[in-house]
Design goal:
Blueprint (H helix, E strand, L loop, with lengths): L7 H5 L7 H14 L13 H18 L2 H11 L65 E4 L2 E4 L2 H9 L5 H10 L4 H8 L3 H8 L9 H14 L4 H16 L1
Antiparallel strand pairs: 1-2
Helix pairs in contact: 2-3, 9-10
Length: 245
């Protein structure tokens, strides 16, 4: 079950032909699922952020429960969306509590980086599925590691990572590539669409969902490449907000 949070029907998990009664029932269920008190959201969202999710749900319900607003929305929904492509807007069910557990900690998860997951809307890249062997250090080199394997430590790069003040997409990409982690590997664990991960690295906010969701994406990305998840997600969210104001 994947959600497109820009599509009100998808958000409430109802068919576009659903009756008002079905929409009301789905609204009550979804609102309870995303309650700020829901244990499933604790590791990914603060209570304030969960409250923002409820606001999105309220807007969806207000629109779909009004015949006039729903008719206008249905007309808009049929138009080409460009950046918001429903078929490729793959989300992580676990982030939002739909699987009944939190995905905030990947430390105990089993994974096989050699198995690539396909994502709708992403350009096929056969070479991205190739798993490179872990580097072998020379006598004077040391190795670092991520959940995906080892990488040769470079003191200069390590110093740069520690000293950087502006945490943005290019910085995240630099760290990812330095540590030998591919977009596919992150996507296979988080289930975040590859197109969203690329948009994060490019600071392409027009291709990203609302700040509260993008913040959760960055938090998972940062954890998997060995960065401070909270620091990175907070900084990225703040940058997005400034750009959108």
């Amino acid at each position: 079950m994947s959600l497109n949070f820009d599509d009100y029907y998808d958000l409430l998990q109802v068919d576009p032909a659903a009756s008002l009664e079905e929409i009301q029932r789905a609204y009550r269920k979804t609102k309870a699922l995303y309650s700020p008190d829901s244990p499933a959201l604790y590791s990914m969202f603060s209570k304030e952020e969960a409250t923002e999710l409820i606001h999105v749900i309220e807007t969806a319900y207000k629109t779909l429960s009004s015949p006039n607003l729903r008719a206008e929305y249905d007309q808009q929904r049929m138009r080409p969306k460009g950046a918001w492509d429903q078929s490729s807007n793959v989300q992580d069910d676990a982030i939002y509590g739909l699987s009944g557990e939190s995905s905030g900690d990947f430390s105990n998860m089993d994974s096989n980086p050699s198995q690539s997951v396909g994502f709708s809307g992403d350009s096929p890249d056969l070479m991205s599925n190739v798993v490179e062997p872990s580097p072998q250090p020379t006598s004077n080199q040391k190795l670092g590691n991520t959940r995906f394997g080892n990488y040769v430590l470079d003191p200069e790069v390590e110093e740069y990572i520690q000293s950087v003040e502006v945490i943005d997409g290019p910085f995240l990409k630099t760290v990812r590539e330095y540590k030998g982690v591919s977009i596919d590997q992150i996507a296979s664990i988080t289930k975040i669409g590859g197109h969203h991960l690329a948009a994060i690295e490019n600071n392409d906010f027009s291709q990203l969902p609302p700040v509260v969701f993008s913040k959760a994406f960055v938090k998972q990305y940062a954890q998997l490449v060995g960065l401070d998840p909270q620091k990175c997600s907070d900084a990225y969210a703040e940058m997005m907000k400034k750009e959108q104001n």
